[in-house]
Amino acid sequence: MLIHSGTIITPTEEKGADIFIEDGIIKAEDGGSQETIMIDATGLLVFPGFIDCHVHFRDPGLTDKADMKTESKAARFAGVTTVCEMPNTIPATVSITALKDKIKKSEQITDCDMRFFFGATRAEHLSELKILWTDSKYSTLKEKCCGLKVFFDHSTGDQGAGKEVIKEAFKLCNELKIPLVAHCEDPEINNAAADSVEGDDISLHSEMRPPEAEEKSIKDAIGLVREYGTAFHVAHLSTAKGLDLIRQAKKDGLPITCEVTPHHLFLSTDQYKYSGTLVKMNPPLRSESDRHALWEGIKDGTVDCISTDHAPHTLEEKEVTPTLSAPSGMPGVETMIPLLLTAAHEEAISYADILRCCFTSPNSIFNLGKEEIAEGNMADIVIIDPNEKWTLKKEDLLTKCGWSPFTETKMTGRVKHVLLARDSVAL
Ligand SMILES: [Zn+2]
Q1: Which of 148, 141, 144 lies closest to 178, judged by CA?
Q2: What pTM, to 2 d.p., does this model score?
Q3: If one looks up domain 50-370+389-409 in CATH, what number appears?
Q4: What's the N-to-C CA distance of the chain in angstroms?
Q5: Catalytic site residues?
Q6: Distance 42 CA to ligand 1 centre (A)
Q7: Which of 224, 230, 231, 358: CA 20 to 30 A from 245?
Q8: Is 186:152 a contact under the CB 8 Å cutoff?
Q9: How many CB atoms lie within 10 A of CB 192?
């Protein structure tokens, strides 16, 4: 196959070049194969397949909301070829058996490379993780496990862990060099805030989970990083104060990284009046000033990753009264790259930062072993028209839940082809 005359986005440059692919391997020159399929990429951008390091595909156990097959198809269609899936399924991924079952199921999935986080709410879950990491008979399962996820507060799936388990997690992950991710919200601050709020306006959700809860929780986590030296990743960072703490921790040389979601980048508390319960998620939508701070965090490199926290629910589940009883979470895997390309068109983000936040950093933080576009590599390849204008339509969505607060958004920039190294098949 020949990808002709595209602009390849690399960490250091944008370069025009032809790419030849033979048996999934990238070649700089034509190897002389007779039947070359050509994609004319003149005026198009060529990226490695994007990584979404935070998704909930709800499979097994919650497949009325989503399943591996539907969501991986949606992901690929929007340029995401690798996902890291969270443990709050039914059963939760807190045992080697549960992990094994998920991996087995994912072997049927051809649209995405699925990796899985292990979860822990109790000490015995950490013991299982230790066995997974150290017993060589589990080495193939370990390869598909991208790290440990803990929740500092209860969220969907009731995965909140106590303080002792959290400490043990930091200790174990440092000992075995397991990537550790946490949902950082302080439960006491959230509980007190929830108690002080009255009424059933959906916008109260943001007041019931105030920025101070995230700030306190990240502060505690940084304390644990200092104590144990663990490489630690903050999931879906949403506040300016949390970002400032991470900025300082990085300056202090601590091994801390973070991700932000498209919904916290593109939406603020103003969105409740348009989207109601559809934009109820945890951590909740924040103020415009928090939102702007996250964009600054991308520009100055404090933000390492952009990931979606893709967390679908059915429309029926979302459309309930009282509105505050609606489940938290929204889909995102299908809209992340289009939204970021649109932002790039408006010069709010560079292509280099899209590459860094949606490929290079998640790839290295979670040891995913994905290859960039270079001679000799087996890279997944996404070809993008940066100038195509289109509108996201509800009927075109591929996620099983079939809704997104971003429908009717006018986008600039569209994924045109997705080539997976392992099958070299065009979309
Ligand atoms: Zn999540």
Answers
A1: 148
A2: 0.96
A3: 3.20.20.140
A4: 14
A5: 309
A6: 38
A7: 358
A8: yes
A9: 14
